[in-house]
Design a protein that fits this description.
single chain, 183 residues, Nucleoside Triphosphate Pyrophosphohydrolase, 5-stranded mixed sheet, 3-stranded antiparallel sheet, 4 helices, 27% strand
């Protein structure tokens, strides 16, 4: 397994602070705490019981949210991805993924909150090309704003980008949190 600067302590602290703010999510996120307690390295992409990813929710000046068309999953998603050895914090990883995938420069993006606005655990299908079985992503999602437009897309991962109304986000909790944070 790869040692990353993002530590188990950082993941646990971030998750615990999030649950302090959103205790109603304890049942759904208890398996993540169990994985941390078991000694699983959730920063390692090869930890297939579940590993951390960093997501970015980017609001434009008109309140619409940026979505990218993910090549491997063939779906419209929020920008984000796996942690890398250069990442020192989840927020930093989310911003890096956002800028890589969309070409929007980091200095054109403002962080709305330094805590995740949402933590989502979702299944990822097997990818035989990468030798990956079905697994779970534990996506720590951070909210940002920008007045910039989409730049050069990361063609290896993203085939398109579009600004969409926040009400098109399928997860009601996430929609509500975005609306509250942007008020």
């Amino acid at each position: 397994m790869i040692d990353l600067p993002i530590t188990e302590a950082h993941l646990r602290t971030t998750l615990t602070a999030y649950l302090d703010e959103h205790p109603e999510e304890q049942p759904g996120l208890a398996p993540v705490l169990d994985l941390l307690d078991s000694g699983a390295d959730l920063t390692a992409r090869r930890e297939f019981r579940g590993h951390a990813t960093a997501g970015a929710i980017l609001s434009g000046p008109d309140g619409r949210i940026l979505h990218v068309h993910h090549l491997a999953l063939d779906k419209w998603l929020l920008p984000g991805g796996h942690l890398e050895s250069v990442d020192e914090a989840l927020l930093e990883a989310a911003l890096r993924e956002l800028t890589e995938e969309t070409g929007i420069p980091a200095d054109a993006v403002t962080t709305v909150t330094h805590r995740p606005v949402h933590i989502d655990v979702h299944p990822i299908p097997a990818n035989d090309t990468k030798g990956e079985p079905d697994h779970q992503h534990i996506d720590f999602r951070f909210l940002f704003r920008t007045t910039a437009d989409i730049g050069q897309l990361q063609a290896e991962e993203v085939t398109g980008a579009a600004w969409r109304d926040a009400d098109t986000i399928g997860d009601q909790t996430l929609r509500q949190r975005i609306a509250e944070a942007l008020r």
